[in-house]
Design brief:
The protein is an alpha+beta fold. It contains 10 helices and 8 strands. InterPro entries: Nucleotide-bd_a/b_plait_sf, RBD_domain_sf, RRM_dom, RRM_euk-type, U2AF_small, Znf_CCCH.
Amino acid sequence: GAEHLARIHGTEEDRVNCPFYFKIGACRHGDRCSRLHNKPVFSQTILVSHMYQNPIAQVIAQNGDPASLDQRQVDEDFEDFYEEVFEELCKFGKLEELNICDNLGDHLVGNVYAKYEDEEHAAAAQKSLYGRFYAGRPLVCEFSPVTDFREARCRQFDEGTCNRGGYCNFMHIKTVSRSMQRELERMFNRGRRDKSRSPSRSRSRSRSASRGRERHGRGHSRSRSGSHDAPKGESSRRKGSRSRSPSPAKKDRRSRSRSHSPRSPARGSKRDTPRTEGGVVEKKD
């Protein structure tokens, strides 16, 4: 009956719905799968397919040797990518999780999963990313059924014992350091607090200015209005101090990773698509 169907939904016993799509949000059979892929019309989680350009996958595609890669450079480039994506996606709301697959299989390679605190935030992100480009490639963004990543991730990979390698059908989630994760979360929380406080500060300044004009007349109001230029500068300086200043080591890492990045065009070359500072570009005309 209905109770039995509900119990087996998304499990291996379910002969109608694909358990891998239900748990992972992707299936190696794709459209050829014999079971249904029930794509949600809304979700807390969005999937941006193949957004991360896995350097190992790129080397393998060119019949190269992955062992030739500089792992330190790979990790530094990944941190830059993670930071770009985190900052872009946080514009739409608070992220509960940002998971990027390190798998090599066609259905999982480079997949970016972003789980928001609220479905409305996920919907805003999905709508905004639709039709945009990253590294010259169109972004394919859709809602994902995955909301519990404990079922999606490979436990053996997390323990360092997965013998299936990059072609495992469960998520091999590539992580950044805990210190970087905390830094990004602090930056988001600080930005949200500043955003919520700024309207009240401007209202209080305008009220004090109007009271000053009423009490002291036009001449004094001119001097007061002139003094209001200082908080603007102070505010901009404060804003500048709030922005994260990377350490000299990180600045050096950034300059090296940018110079080696495949997204940076050679001098005099012509971009196929315009790019914003954050890496995610606007829609083509």
